[in-house]
Each structure stands twice: as structure tokens, then as C-alpha cells.
Design goal:
synapse, B30.2/SPRY, ubl conjugation pathway, 7 helices, 263 residues, FBXO45-Fsn/SPSB_families, seven-stranded antiparallel sheet, alpha+beta
């Protein structure tokens, strides 16, 4: 293709009205949309608008009406961010056999199985960048309810009621019941280090902050930073959002937020 032909194609791309482009883009796959954003500044501008019809249509295709009308996604305010949260939600193929992900795509349910501790990981793991997500425990905590991260090598089920997340060197967790940090099978101390810190209440949003540059894991509750919980996380190894639970019929939702906002 000669330079004149390339210029003509570029000129045509620039002349197509925005509304027509949005209509065309709404039929394309997400992979195709990533390629389209590289064509020209106009296409990039349109696809950078996270609230236009392109992302609205993709949300309608993938997100069930139940979740779009609830307040579960209230902290992700654009269509594209809601879609991103969906693709980072719990993985129905990476959880204990005693758990399943509900049709809304964001909430896992633990079946009432006696003498078992069960876990579930998110769809996407991280080994670079900074990432934040919210975990909402929507059912009883039971005696052990752990929020944190794990590698793909960490187990997802074990016998008894224990802190499964944090039981080996492949996982790190905060037990919301007794406010202890767990890693490598041992308690890593009390958390958070705040005076008269109230116990977690069912339904509160816990914000998990993973910094793969500083290799740290931290938590927030009710927009209050609780401090760094773990340091020295492994380099260049994917770490996945994870929870472990023991209580029958408990439910836990997870919403990916993207890079954390400092301050």
C-alpha cells in the first residue's frame, strides 16, 4: 500500500461522524476495539469516552439487569469501568467445588458443607502496576472469613474450619473475624493497628490495594486507610484477588476498581 492510499484511508476515518462510528464500534469485539483505538486520534477520542454508547451496549450484552440496577457497582461510575469490573470478577472455574458464582457474575455463594473451608480467586492476576478492588461480605462471617490474595498454587479447599487463605507461602489474608493477618500458616499479628478499631460489619466494603511496584498489600474500610498489611510480596508472580469462607450460604461480592487513587 502506497503513502497516498494510507492517507486516503486516514482521511475517510476522520470524516465519519461520531454517532455512526459509535454504532459501528458497538458491534465489534473488545479486541477489535483496542485495535481501532490505534487508527487515528478521532477514533481514540471516541473510545476513550467511557460513558458513550459503545461501552453502554457492551455492558447491556454482558451485565445482567439485576446488577446494573443494584448499588453493587456504585463505586464504578462509567460503562467501561463496569465492564472492566465484570472481566475481573470471581472466576467460576477457579474456586472450590463447594462454591459457585451467581448469575450476576460478581457474587460467589458457598454451599452449606460441614467441616470444609473453601476459597475462590478472581479471573485476573497481577504482577505489575497498582490495583484496587472492593470485597463485600454479604452473608454471615462464621468463625473464619479471610480476604486477600493468592497465587495459582494456593489450595482452594481443605478440611475443617481454618484460615485457608494464608495457610501457606502462596497466600496472604486478613481474617475479618479476629483481625489477624495470616501467611505461611501463621498469624502475622493484629490488624489494623488502630486504637479501638471496630470489628468488620457484614455488608461493609473492604478496599484491597495491591502495589506490585512496592510489593505490598494494604486495606481500606469506609474510605479509611488501615495501613500496609503485608510487605515483601513475590516479584513477577501473578497474585489474584482471593477469599476463603467457612459459613454455609454466605455470599461475597468483588468489584475491581482499577489503579487506586492516592490521597
Amino acid at each position: 500500500m502506497n503513502e497516498l492510499a494510507i492517507y486516503d484511508d486516514y482521511a475517510i476515518a476522520e470524516e465519519i461522524p461520531d454517532l455512526i462510528l459509535e454504532a459501528i464500534f458497538s458491534y465489534l469485539s473488545l479486541k477489535d476495539l483496542r485495535n481501532c483505538a490505534l487508527v487515528c486520534k478521532k477514533w481514540y477520542r471516541i473510545l476513550s469516552d467511557e460513558n458513550n454508547d459503545v461501552w453502554r451496549v457492551h455492558c447491556v450484552k454482558r451485565l445482567v439487569e439485576e446488577v446494573t440496577k443494584s448499588d453493587l457497582l456504585s463505586t464504578v461510575t462509567t460503562y467501561k469501568s463496569k465492564l472492566r469490573a465484570f472481566f475481573h470478577a470471581w472466576n467460576p472455574h477457579d474456586c472450590s467445588r463447594n462454591m459457585y458464582v451467581k448469575p450476576n457474575g460478581f457474587t460467589l455463594h458457598r454451599n452449606p458443607v460441614a467441616q470444609s473451608t473453601d476459597a475462590c480467586r478472581g479471573k485476573v492476576g497481577f504482577y505489575y502496576g497498582r490495583h484496587a478492588w472492593e470485597v463485600i461480605w454479604e452473608g454471615p462471617l462464621g468463625t473464619v472469613a479471610v480476604v486477600g490474595i493468592s497465587t495459582k498454587d494456593a489450595p482452594l479447599q481443605c478440611q475443617g474450619y481454618v484460615g485457608l487463605l494464608g495457610s501457606d507461602e502462596q497466600s496472604w489474608g486478613w481474617n475479618l473475624v479476629d483481625n489477624h493477618l495470616l501467611h505461611n500458616g501463621d498469624s502475622q499479628g493484629h490488624y489494623p493497628l488502630l486504637n479501638n478499631c471496630p470489628k468488620y460489619q457484614v455488608g461493609e466494603r473492604i478496599r484491597v490495594i495491591l502495589d506490585c511496584e512496592d510489593n505490598t498489600l494494604a486495606f481500606e474500610r469506609n474510605y479509611e486507610f488501615l495501613g500496609v498489611a503485608f510487605r515483601g510480596l513475590p516479584n513477577k508472580k501473578k497474585l489474584y484477588p482471593t477469599v476463603s469462607a467457612v459459613y454455609g450460604n454466605t455470599e461475597v461480592s468483588m468489584v475491581y476498581l482499577g489503579p487506586p487513587v492516592d490521597g
